Amino acid sequence: MSVLSHTREVASDTPSLFVYSAYSSKSLERMVQNIERFLDTTTESFADVAYTLACRRQHLPYRSFVVSAKDKPGEAPSALTQDVGSDYTLVMVFTGQGAQWPQMGRGLLRSNQAFSEVIRTTDMELNRLGADWTINNELSKTSRQSRVNEAEFSQPLCTVIQIALVETLASVGIKPAAVVGHSSGEIAAAYAAGALTLSEAMAVAFY
User: Using an 8 Å Cβ cutoff, are 166 and 119 in contact?
Assistant: First the structure.
């Protein structure tokens, strides 16, 4: 089997991200083969294996990944098996209003603990600020019901989605070296830079 493909079934229809890394391309290929043999005999779920690879293993120079769901094996681009080195910088760019859509982030809200925890905490902050609606409820509405394009809702929603993404990436060790914000995207950018707390960011977005 190629180092870049995965053919095992996952435990549910929710995709799992498998992160592979090694000191060389040969080691990378052997690693995937070893994982395949392990999956042939274990009762562990794909999600558990994916979590261990992403969060409980050292990330080495030669890397690849694949996103797989039940009956939908994925394939990673071969370039990702090259030596990525260690000299890189991550910049995050944050959008203002206009990029939103109904039910945005709903998949992560249902499947990712770090993401859903931010939404839960934010709803508590909005309640404290006097909001009579919740992020969770608004993100669950259909396109006919959604108020995501109304300014009262779009600014807090766009802000919290981006903050939740920042925390989701941080939960697996991905943090920006610099941030850029366009328009109201500066709120989430300021949060990512550590200039605003979650409470402060949501107060700015709400008012």
Answer: no
